[in-house]
Amino acid sequence: MFLQTQRMSKPRHIYQGRLDKGMAHIVSAFDQDFAALNDMLARLGGMAEAQLSNVMGAIEARKLDALDAIISGDKELDKIELDINEQALRLIALRAPMAQDLRRVLVSLKVAAALERIGDYAKNIAKRSKVIIPDTNYDVPMASILTMARLAQTMLNQVMDAYVAMDSDLAIDVWEQDIAIDQIHTALFQSLLELMATSGDRATIISHLLFTAKNIERVGDHVTNIAEQIYFVNHGKFPEDDRPKADTASALGLDG
Amino acid sequence: MLSPVTKIQAENVNVFYGTNQALYDVSVDIPQNQVTAFIGPSGCGKSTFLRCFNRMNDAIEGCHMNGRIAIDSEDIYSSAIDVVELRARIGMVFQKPNPFPKSIYDNVAYGPRIHGLTQNKSDLDALVETSLRRAGLWNEVKDRLLAIGSGLSGGQQQRLCIARAIAVNPDILLMDEPCSALDPIATAIIEELIDELRQRYTIIMVTHSMQQAARISQKTAYFHMGKLIEFGETGDVFTNPKNEQTEAYISGKIG
Asked: What percent of the residues of chain A are helix, what percent strand, and what percent coil, each to the nearest 5?
């Protein structure tokens, strides 16, 4: 079942990072501004996760009635992203943040953009679901798509926990999980291509499934991007090792 | 990229006011033709360190130092050094503009006259003009050179003090919070001027404004309780300082 997972930890009202153990700004309004920014990010993360969870739940339960609410609900995510941009702009203008504070504000903008994109993918899947759900032919590898979506949703949940706690170790754990999504995506892509070759009359539904799978794979990429940003806030540089990748779907079919 | 030439080299400098130690074992290489900013909380020793470079601490009773400070590889505390000549090589600008109660012209001509830098009136006129031009003040005062210096605005007075400092042709400029008494526009004009002046001079500036240090310096040194905590490229110090004390200070945090 696609139930929205609970936040493992509540948003903390004084943000924590490498140097922030027990450290507060002398000007306490600075900490309040950061707390407000953090709360908005946590909220946007929760909403993106809910959108993804709801659309995959609708596909799994084969119910069309929730889709319109998901599609129109995307506007709310767009609005929160704009609020985050405004809050970050104010924080830069009024507080002139330095060092880790500065990295944190810049990263909040990138994380907000990534979450907004994840929301867009959920909305896009919801639109495609209007074609996918009524399809009564059970020959498509739906289980793999649902497994992949579950992984992406778990990763998103964990990366937002890592963000709120500014926990680089947890972020790197999430970062390394993306390989599983890539592997499923590659296998899924292969089987959908084969299906298309054998049942040409089902090209429409298969195309929608290809894009749905791709959308979920992109969610994983955005989550790993957020993980890298968390690492950057704490360390002032990006993780050095190349992330293990296993998505070879882009090259499939080239060698026949 | 070639590493810049070291203009001032400090090695293991300790400074005491009586029995009270103000600086502990400070070693740093100040690069030529760059702006180096000294930052840190009040009482951290940054102004004391600045005053070591022109031996202004000599005038403070009970103040003594050990360690070595060399300018162009020459030990400025050796007995062979003429302190008056040393101070002519090092201009200083203070927090509050302090023009002499004289005309604009005489403020700038004062140093060249006592150091005997010019032979005649026309040489002196030319030197006054060059100094005022370099200080970005010429166009504003050329028609009233005989007016009293303290009649200028605060920002103009500070530029007059810079013109006075560079009139004796120094190669180092020390600035102790040069903009803290100025409005943002006058500050911006001085900051722009400092950036131009570094083509000719090595500049060391004490500032309490993080933004100012970030805007105009190439190197930043963070002092805390008499110790040099961190010294590095300004761009690195303000985005990714190596030391946690520096991070806390520039971010305005306490633990």
From this structure: 75, 0, 25
